[in-house]
Amino acid sequence: MQTVEVIDDPSTAICALDPIRSRILAELSEPASAATLAARIGLPRQKVNYHLRTLEEHHLVCIAETRQWGGLTERLLVATAASYVVSPGAMGPVAVDPARTQDRLSAQYLIALGARIVSEVKRLLQRSTETSKRLPALSIDTVIHFRSAADRARFTEELTRAVNGLVSRYHSKTPGSRAHRVVLVAHPLPASLNPEESNQ
Questions:
Q1: Which CATH number fits domain 2-84: 3.60.15.10, 1.20.120.80, 3.40.50.150, 1.10.10.10?
Q2: Pairing state of beta strands 61-69 and 72-79?
Q3: DSSP E strand boundaries for 36-93
Q4: Exposure winner among 72, 137, 151, 160, fewest CB in 10 A?
């Protein structure tokens, strides 16, 4: 089972977003049979079997094990990933694109950058899986509390200078060099994720 699977096929996205199938995927973090699932989610086994076949056709679940019970074969299915994300590519021509946003300080541009990361890394991850080579990646995720807007502005200036300095030092266009995309973003935490803010 993969940790995260990116869905970029529109029909697969529609399949996964169906409320019942989404619930079934969540239940299949561990192998289970149609009968077990039917008891858990309160649906007839025939309906569960229908949804399982659809999920299997879209490669969202797979067979983990088969068991023989008398003359019958019981299939235990498992989700192909622990969690899923729908790629902007599933939206086709209307998929978000940073190039369409002029204001680079806007929230819309930040969202477009995040969407592009999903699309690009999905393609790279697929190729790394095919070649059995690990994809080199770096992620930094932290939370900082600013005392004031002035401190936030100074932090932004210092961070920009530091990144530009590193880019100038390591950027190379020599033959054999490999382009890497570096994206730094900052945004306020939603109140639901920030206990201090929600208590104010």
A1: 1.10.10.10
A2: antiparallel
A3: 61-69, 72-79, 81-86
A4: 72
Angle 130-135-141 from CA coordinates, rounded to 5° = 140
- Which helix H or strand E contains 75, and what residues bound it? strand 72-79
The Cα 24–Cα 103 span in angstroms is 41
> Would you say how long the chain is, in residues?
200
CATH 1.10.10.10 residue ranges of the chain are 2-84
CB atoms within 10 A of CB 132: 6
pTM value is 0.77
- pLDDT tens-place string over residues 118-172: 999 998 988 888 888 888 899 999 999 999 999 999 999 999 999 999 999 999 9
Give the separation between CA 5 and CA 1, rounded to whole angstroms.
9
- Closest to 114 in 3D by CA, of 194, 185, 190, 12: 185
